[in-house]
Specification:
- This protein is an alpha+beta fold.
- The protein has a single domain, classed as Gcn5-related N-acetyltransferase (GNAT) (Aminopeptidase).
- The protein contains five helices and eight strands, in the order ββααββαβαβαββ.
- The longest helix is centred in the last third of the chain and has 17 residues.
- Bound molecules: coenzyme A.
């Protein structure tokens, strides 16, 4: 997930389209999810380790204070234009444990690529599809924060914000991320060969697309 919207995922202002503005917070007693904001700059700067890519944009950590402030500003602007939004995940004590991102629009294929049949329903959702991504700070991993946070955010996107589908793209070798997706009720749709690139200077890799649709049971969890 990059910082520049790919073609077809431009900013939209129409009030008829789904919102990315979460008022208040979502909570399940273990994790709380709320909009990423200026209060998160210090936590964000402190928590992304050197060499690790997080969800907010290309380029590995660590994040300087300026970079973290820029990320928060960028996602606040994205939220206002209904293009993308950042969210903080907090533990039961209110400490920052990770982040999630929503980016409006369906998967974007390279020009000239013929879409596989399994992708058509997601492409048809157009601006009512939204991609989700998640990241947990290393000391907080393995406690269910990503799974719970993703489930809360997907529920909100489908039941309150007005999206028809929430989708993920996951490297098929990322078993932990696939476990998060399954635990949050996402079902695999198919695999796009060579579709994803973790960093602009890295080669592409295959990408599994998973989806949760409104009005359908959320699967296991
Ligand atoms: C992937 C990531 C978000 C998972 O975050 P997390 O908060 O630790 O995830 P959860 O605690 O909700 O764990 C989800 C599942 O993974 C399993 N898991 C967690 N850490 C694991 C590990 N190190 N090895 C194996 N399984 C692990 C959990 O047991 C759980 O499986 P279960 O539901 O079958 O019990 C986190 O590892 C991360 O930020 N990684 C780097 C960024 C990334 O890969 N993001 C996803 C991009 S698509």
């Amino acid at each position: 997930m990059g910082t520049t919207p790919p073609p077809g995922r431009d900013a939209v202002e129409s009030p008829d389209l789904p919102t990315l503005s979460l008022e208040g917070s979502l909570a399940d007693g273990v994790v709380t999810v709320r909009a990423l904001g200026p209060d998160d700059v210090a936590s964000l700067a402190a928590s992304v380790p050197a060499g690790e890519s997080a969800v907010w944009g290309p380029g590995p950590g660590p994040y300087s204070g300026d970079r973290a402030a820029g990320v928060v500003r960028e996602y606040e602007e994205g939220r206002r234009s209904r293009l993308k939004a950042g969210f903080a995940a907090l533990d039961a004590g209110g400490s920052f444990v990770g982040g999630l991102v929503l980016q409006a629009g369906p998967p974007t294929l390279e020009p000239g690529t013929i879409a596989p049949a399994w992708l058509l329903s997601l492409l048809a959702d157009g601006p009512r599809a939204v991609e989700a991504a998640y990241w947990t700070a290393p000391p907080a991993r393995g406690r269910g924060y990503a799974t719970r946070g993703l489930r809360l955010l997907a529920d909100w996107a489908l039941e309150t914000a007005g999206f028809r589908s929430v989708w993920l793209e996951v490297d098929p070798v990322n078993r932990v991320s696939l476990a998060v997706a399954a635990g949050a009720g996402f079902a695999p749709l198919g695999t796009l060969p060579g579709h994803c690139r973790d960093e602009p200077d890295q080669g592409p890799h295959d990408c599994r697309i998973l989806v949760r649709r409104g009005g359908e049971p959320a699967g296991r969890g």
